[in-house]
User: Fold this.
Amino acid sequence: MRTRHIALTPILAAALLLATTVAPAQAQSAPAEAAAEQAQSTGEKLFNATCATCHSVQPPASLAPPMAMIMQHYRKALDSDEAIRTTVMEWVVDPAEERSLMPAMAIEHHGLMPPITTLSDDELQEITTYLLTLKPEKGGMGMGGGQGMQHGKKDSQGMQHGKKNGQGMKHDKKGGESK
Assistant:
């Protein structure tokens, strides 16, 4: 019996050693992960209370382009999350057509976003942290398979320009809404 007890001791020692080296690493990342989840949760709530008035998260678009699609354009145009964060925070308080990273048609169809000056810098940070988690769903608007804005196609969904029988908004050739 004593031999068996001695044989288990090295195994227990190795297990204890492993537990003491892995646990601190997990403990250090746990607060960072919890903070990111909290920020996402708070950011998502702020997004829903403020931004979702005009922006959906995924296609189809509501009054403004879906945020996952906007974030996709920002990721392609900018080289880091920090650059995206700075650009989004500057855009929200002072949108300008010449600084838009979206295709020109987005502003043509939806108009320029009004400035949002009621959010604190901390709230904008929280919203941007949430936005950085968004990714477009496969087949979304403008990605070759979605049913987003359709130009001049009959019986399609989305915004319609100068055609009848569509299911979305219809605009005459002058850009005004037709009936």
Q: What stands out?
A: The first strand starts at residue 160 and ends at 161. Residues 5-25, 140-179 have pLDDT under 50 and may be disordered.
